[in-house]
Backbone:
């Protein structure tokens, strides 16, 4: 496991762990309010170590070991940090693995760095969740109060969302038109995901321009996809993508 280091991005101290090794580099993008020390990120790091493959993971500003205020964050800001990490910390081909909101950012990396991103893995990917993930009442509260909260199924504290984040997400929607990604894309989604409906994965699959898109629906699985058999499915997916690139 690489030591925690820091990258300055627009005055924000972004914490990252970079494991040296062969290309392609695996880049992991956490979900909303998650960090690089989660079960999936650590499992991928061990996987990379076992195959002598380079791996980069980092914390968005305001999360984990990074500096900054979480409520000052936005999708555009965290995408800027992901781009800086790719451009300044890695070279050569990439396999980008994004969890939930990280899957949304992964799609943008593939659009903005098509010469670098050779494959995308979306784990319960959540593109456009500012569009389909908020009720009319929550939208009204965002506009009126500048923030809203949702029940957090993974902890006692509710999940907070700001108007800044919501407006940023609305500007970066992808599912209303074709998505000009030509690289292979692999989507893993839980059949019983209550946070990101399975229909979102089907919509994404249809919008992607790539002819090499596969959706793996895991029976009975929920949003986190962190159980041992779910982790195995993720690692098997990444391993198969490594073969034609290495």
Residues:
């Amino acid at each position: 496991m690489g030591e925690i280091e820091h990258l300055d991005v627009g005055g924000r101290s972004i914490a990252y762990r970079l494991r040296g090794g062969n290309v392609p580099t695996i880049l992991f993008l956490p979900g909303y309010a998650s960090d690089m020390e989660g079960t999936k990120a650590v499992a991928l790091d061990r996987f990379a170590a076992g195959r002598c493959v380079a791996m980069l993971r980092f914390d968005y500003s305001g999360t984990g070991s990074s500096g900054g205020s979480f409520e000052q964050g936005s999708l555009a800001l965290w995408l800027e940090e992901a781009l800086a990490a790719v451009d300044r910390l890695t070279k050569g081909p990439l396999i980008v693995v994004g969890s939930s909101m990280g899957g949304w950012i992964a799609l943008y990396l593939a659009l903005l760095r098509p010469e670098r991103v050779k494959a995308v893995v979306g784990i319960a990917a959540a593109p456009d969740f500012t569009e389909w993930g908020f009720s009319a009442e929550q939208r009204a509260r965002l506009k009126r109060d500048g923030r809203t909260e949702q029940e957090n199924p993974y902890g006692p504290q509710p999940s907070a969302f700001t108007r800044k984040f919501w407006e940023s997400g609305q500007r970066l929607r992808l599912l209303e038109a074709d998505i000009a990604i030509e690289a292979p894309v692999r989507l893993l989604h839980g059949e019983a995901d209550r946070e990101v409906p399975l229909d979102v994965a089907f919509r994404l699959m249809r919008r992607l321009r790539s002819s090499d898109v596969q959706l793996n629906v895991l029976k009975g699985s929920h949003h986190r996809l962190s159980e041992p058999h779910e982790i195995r499915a993720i690692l098997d997916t990444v391993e198969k993508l490594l073969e034609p690139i290495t």
User: Anything to note?
Assistant: The chain has a mean pLDDT of 95.
